[in-house]
Amino acid sequence: MIGRPTTEQTLALGDFVPFRLNRLAAGVSLHLAEVYQHRFGLDIPQWRVMATVGAEQACTAQFIAASTRMHKTRVSRAIAQLEARELIERAASAADRRQRQVRLSRSGRRMYSELVPLARAREATLLSCLTPEQRTGFLTGIEILERFLQLEN
Amino acid sequence: MIGRPTTEQTLALGDFVPFRLNRLAAGVSLHLAEVYQHRFGLDIPQWRVMATVGAEQACTAQFIAASTRMHKTRVSRAIAQLEARELIERAASAADRRQRQVRLSRSGRRMYSELVPLARAREATLLSCLTPEQRTGFLTGIEILERFLQLEN
DNA sequence: CACATTTAGTTGCGCTCGCAACCGTCCCCG
DNA sequence: CGGGGACGGTTGCGAGCGCAACTAAATGTG
User: Fold this and answer.
1) Where do the domains of chain B lie?
2) Does residue A152 register a pLDDT over 90?
3) Residues A30, A77, A110, A38: what is their CA dihedral angle, to the nearest 10 degrees?
4) What is the C-alpha separation between B63 and B9, in angstroms, rounded?
5) Second label for A12, Cα 20 to 30 Å away, from A24, A79, B81, B118?
6) Are B49 and A42 in contact (CB under 8 A)?
7) What are the tens digits of pLDDT across the range A7-39?
8) CA at A71, C1' at D6: how many angstroms apart?
9) Per-residue flag: A70 CB under 7 A of strand C
10) pLDDT score of A8
11) Residue pair B152/B146 in contact by the 8 Å Cβ criterion
12) Does B124 touch chain A (CB under 8 A)?
């Protein structure tokens, strides 16, 4: 029923790329959530902030928002929660007193160093079901679509 | 910064497949929303219900939930809203009086017949930035990953 | 046949999100 | 140098969501 090929008049969601992409992304997120959620008690915004801050020495909330494409309020709240758990620290910026420099705390760095290999492993597990050629083909498609939709970074 | 290749200790989100997949899916959804939202005043759950019901003569809420992978409460509310707009109708099922048969109303069918070609056109526009080989490579990747994550339908 | 379990669908509730408004700071231009 | 707009970040609020609990109907079991 669902997977049946669509005719001109009909559209089966199971055959519709935007829907399939959403479903796939949700499935992959769920797959990944097992590591950052169950093992470290992070939700998605928090995980993304951790990942972004951990890759920089220090950065601002707006940088995180731009990198992760999350709304600035979502970032703001995630940062507040991470600060409450003492995973990150904020210091007033000398140059611009509106912004605050966010960086990982000691325990934040420890979590980050555990988190990253596990996340990587999940990604690898995921992609392991594709042959090298399939993988590059898939990634090429993503890349071109990203450019087409101007999501590049 | 963001796109910089990751080392063993570091993970750049812009280089991390699960994140890129989420971002891509969100971008594609946004692209598609222009048709179902701005032109027809539907939100995502409503659009998915319309698409599912329109492809069947009649179906139940639970069938819609399974097809769209939406939570049954989300489906229930979307159906209620569409019924309030008189785009769909519900009739008690003779065989099982717990369930109700959902089908498109006359105006629902009219909307559906306008909606489907536009959605298809959006999908085609999107995929038009890929060469035929890239397209099949990309779709193959999606398909295998769907099977791997058991999202097939 | 009675009772327990399962299933279809709805609803109350708490949580998260994005929008808009806001505060404080910076910066440009007259 | 003074004022207006732009910008970084936070917060109040309404909308949408999933969970859990519920109703009603079907099904299974002794």
Assistant:
1) 13-126
2) no
3) -30
4) 45
5) B81
6) no
7) 567 899 999 999 999 999 999 999 999 999 999
8) 19
9) yes
10) 62
11) yes
12) no
Residues 35-74 of B with CB under 7 A from strand C: 60-63, 72-73
CATH 1.10.287.110 fits A14-124, yes or no: no
A141 vs B contacts (CB less than 8 Å):
130, 134-135, 137-139, 141
Q: Which amino acid is at A2?
A: I
Tokens at B66, concatenated:
């399974």
User: CATH number for the B13-126 domain, one of 1.10.10.10, 1.10.10.920, 3.30.1490.190, 3.30.70.3450?
Assistant: 1.10.10.10
Distance B99 CA to C7 C1' (A): 10
Model pLDDT for residues A46-97, shown as the tens digit of each residue: 999 999 999 999 999 999 999 999 999 999 999 999 999 999 999 999 889 9
